[in-house]
Fold each of these.
Amino acid sequence: MRVWVGVVGIAFLGLGGAAPANPGKLEIDRDILLRDLSRGEVTERRMACAAGQAPAMRARIKSVGWDTLSAGQWCVTVLTRAGRDGTLRYVALRDGKATPAIAFDAGFVTGYIKREALPADAPAMITLLPIADRCLDQKEADKDLCGAVGHMLGARAASGELIPIG
């Protein structure tokens, strides 16, 4: 698995060549984030999500021909891993300004920590992830919506639900 992480790391930096399509690759990417990264690597990736950098990293990976998780899938998985590790805390704001990505992150943390049961009619992850993508790309103007979506995804993650692939 560490070799695969190294290959993915090269793609993150834009140094690798195109990789052939692999139908199970997205599940592998998710599972690497959930199992194989160190706590420090998880923290780095989580901070990139909170800073709104996940879409740019995803674009670099795709530019070299790799398929990868969406920003929402990637960040929800990273946040889930931090929750499982017991390192999920609120991110401090440097300038005191909340951004859509910070609102999403804070909502996720609250939902994960509280472990609230969601109502039966709560939107499914697959419905929430496109909104999460906009929040993490800083393109969703409604920060309250970003916080609410983060909260619902955090509650789902705390219950053991994984991001849908495909």
Amino acid sequence: MADWNWEELDTSIGGAEKIPEWVQRLLSQDAKIRENALQTLLCYVANQGSLYTAAAGVVDVLLDYLGSVGRLPAEAWHLMNYIFGAVSCDATVVVEGRTVSLDGYVKARITSLLPLVDEVVADVTIEELDGLTWVLMRLAERSFAVIEILEKHLSSAMGERRASLVQAVADARDAWEEGNQFLGDV
């Protein structure tokens, strides 16, 4: 994970100095605080489909939290989904002394969470699974591993979790097929 200087990153309204506070609110135990933080962060880092450089730091903080705690609230998964789907106007960030594409960086970082998802998916709540599923559908367009992970966990799931995973597997297969429909034509 990169060490971010938040004062050098931008948001839709300017500087990103307050973004770490909003990310901490996104990880709160209080659902109302999390929802407010989600709406605020969406406006700041992925506003109406436009990606701002602070999104890179947000993704790293969330992935670090996931790695250390083993779960993310549904709102954090939703934010990562919006970040993954947003685009910048050729924005760049400096990571370990190298200038890289903002879009490429956040997509690569979110994609890199697949092995971690495999470890945590069995323990997430239904609400967290719903948020995680949105991110996984984005990733399924690029990686068949999403389907394999979901099917693995489907085999031992019961009740509402099983129903959610059955739907997620079907959606992931659709996303995979849609994302790879032209590969045979190349």
Amino acid sequence: MEVLGGKRNERIVYNMYWMEAMPMARKHLSKLAPGTAVMTLAIACAMAGAWWWLKAQHRASEPVQVAQAFVAYLKVGQFAQAHGLTMKNPYTGRTVSELADISRRNLCQVQEGRILSTFPFQSNGNRLRRWLMGQEVEMSPITIEFAGNCPFNVTVRRTQSNDWKVSSFQSHAG
């Protein structure tokens, strides 16, 4: 009659193997260069940082600057300068007086520097993919949503001369 069952004997043999193997593993790890752990950690951090950067949202600076300048001109009543930033279409007014009329109907208390969002979402990875494939990197149109008493957005498009111009603006229900 065997007191220790077959499985128990296997477990004892397995544990004895690890008791013998652990000092060998420690001995092997101690032979590695001292900078290996630091280098491994640096590579892991670089990979995590690259992953984060690829997934992060890219906020196009040129269209945002045009939209912010447009809103700033409208707020102080400089309609001629604001009209210079538009595509001069029915949505923005073909003339300065049309722009003034449209802005009186649509402009609410907007916080110039406070941007809630840009649309469409474009990640840095998407821009990199487009660039590598030889496609246009900037997406057009881009809608910039401003904070204020009421939601206010400005849509900016790239023109044939490669400039960014305001194609429409409006306040809307939240």
